[in-house]
Design goal:
Two copies of one chain form a homodimer. The first copy, chain A, is mainly α. Chain A contains nine helices and no strands. Chain A binds a DNA duplex (30 and 30 nucleotides) through helix 3.
Amino acid sequence: MKAASKKEVILNTAEGLFYQHGFHAVGVKSILNEVGVAPMTMYYHFKSKEVLIIEILKRREMRYFDFIEEAIDKKSDFNYYAKSLIKAHVDWMKTDGFNGCLFLRAKQEYEGVNEEITAMSKDHKTTLLNKIERDIKFFNAPKTLGTQLVLIMEGITSMAQILEMKEVEASAFDLVKSMQADSE
Amino acid sequence: MKAASKKEVILNTAEGLFYQHGFHAVGVKSILNEVGVAPMTMYYHFKSKEVLIIEILKRREMRYFDFIEEAIDKKSDFNYYAKSLIKAHVDWMKTDGFNGCLFLRAKQEYEGVNEEITAMSKDHKTTLLNKIERDIKFFNAPKTLGTQLVLIMEGITSMAQILEMKEVEASAFDLVKSMQADSE
DNA sequence: TTGTTTATTGAACGTTCATTATAATAAATC
DNA sequence: GATTTATTATAATGAACGTTCAATAAACAA
């Protein structure tokens, strides 16, 4: 397989460090150190730390939606769709270290500091909600179920940082199941 | 009324700044600046920034549980309890600026750095869950409904940062309503 | 009222922060 | 073979970081 370019290694390493420790907590030097490159290598590809963060978020956004899109069941009914969506989100987190949502953290750390980062983070959530609302329209499910699904997904992300994933997963599926009960 | 001591002012100001911008993003100097005191005034009362953070979290923990405790309805049935709990949590956030959960942020920023802060943050959530499970036992509600309620609360906290509170609130209450539907 | 503790001050500490300068090469492309 | 693109190492930048010094003011006790 093709060797990853330095730019890609920087993006991946920085994303991991930011996700684990936070944006302000991770210094540029610690990224350079872990990748094993000189400062100018990073500044050649990204003109600042904040630009690096923006590119990380862009990549992550695509990766997340690709992951979700190929995992959900849009062919059956709302019931199956909801379960497959929650399952996909849980699986995403399992590959990711259970440390919350990077977009939410970005928004919290850069609100009032960098408007582009703030906007991207907000957009990520509204894009998710819009996508779900579009999907479930196909099943003639009421639009309000979309917000409820996102709320459950956000609850999972949050609780996975504290409780066992098994327990979090179970209660999320219980909630989804009662959503259906409503529509019968 | 009694004038607030410098110590209290430092605690309140720092809590506000930390909540708005994050722990690592807020420097000691900016706290001192906003309070209007010299460095040693802070270091006389708190031997380090991290000790200050610990005391802030302790106070917040008490304030939150006092607020919830006096707002919930433990006399009726699970239905009213759940609604009053969600309502209380929503009201708490309305007074607080909608910037997520300070304990979750503390855990994210100090995991692997300060174990006391990490532990306090985890404990905050498990204490909440235990309290709810104890409460709903009184209504003979299944224990698993406790995790579901916390999941909804966490979902609210997360989504309130992005969407209008009105919409978040509505979908949370919808979810609670379908929980009941299950037990009928 | 004097002596002692408690609380507070402004300046300075050494370190780390993100970023740039300099200057020399490698590697890829034309 | 010439030129652009990508990378190296070292050092320095000025600002901000958390923290401490030494002096003093205020509160309190004898």
